[in-house]
Amino acid sequence: MDAARIVHADEDAGNWLTHGRTYSEQRFSPLTGISTANVGQLGLAWSLDLDTTRGQEATPLVIDGVMYSTSAWSKVQAIDASTGKLLWQYDPRVPGEYAAKACCDVVNRGLAAWDGRLFVGTLDGRLVALDAATGTEVWSVVTVDQTKAYTITGAPRIVKGKVIIGNGGAEFGVRGYISAYDTRDGKQLWRFYTVPGDPSLGFEQPVLAEAAKTWKGEWWRLGGGGTVWDSMAYDPELDLLYFGTGNGSPWNQKIRSPGGGDNLFLSSIVAVHPDTGEYVWHYQTTPGESWDYTATQHIVLADVSIGGETRKVLLQAPKNGFFYVLDRVTGKLISAEKYGAVNWASGVDLATGRPVENPDARYPDPEKPWFALPGALGAHNWHPMSFSPQTGLIYIPANDLMYAYIDRPQFKASPVSFNTGVDPTRTRMLKPDKSAPAAPVRGLLRAWDPIAQKEAWSVEHPGPWNGGVLSTAGGLVFQGNAVGLFNAYDARNGKLLWSAAAQTGIVAAPITYRVKDEQFVAVVVGWGGVYPNVAGEAARKGSLAVNRSRVLAFKLGGVGSLPDPAPAATFTAVPRVGDDAAAAVGFRLFHDHCSRCHGAGAVSGGVIPDLRWSAFARDGDAWKSVVLGGALKDRGMISFSSVIGEADAEALRAYVTQRSNQSTP
Ligand code: CA
Question: How far away, in angstroms, is 405 Cα from ligand 1 center?
Answer without folding.
Answer: 14
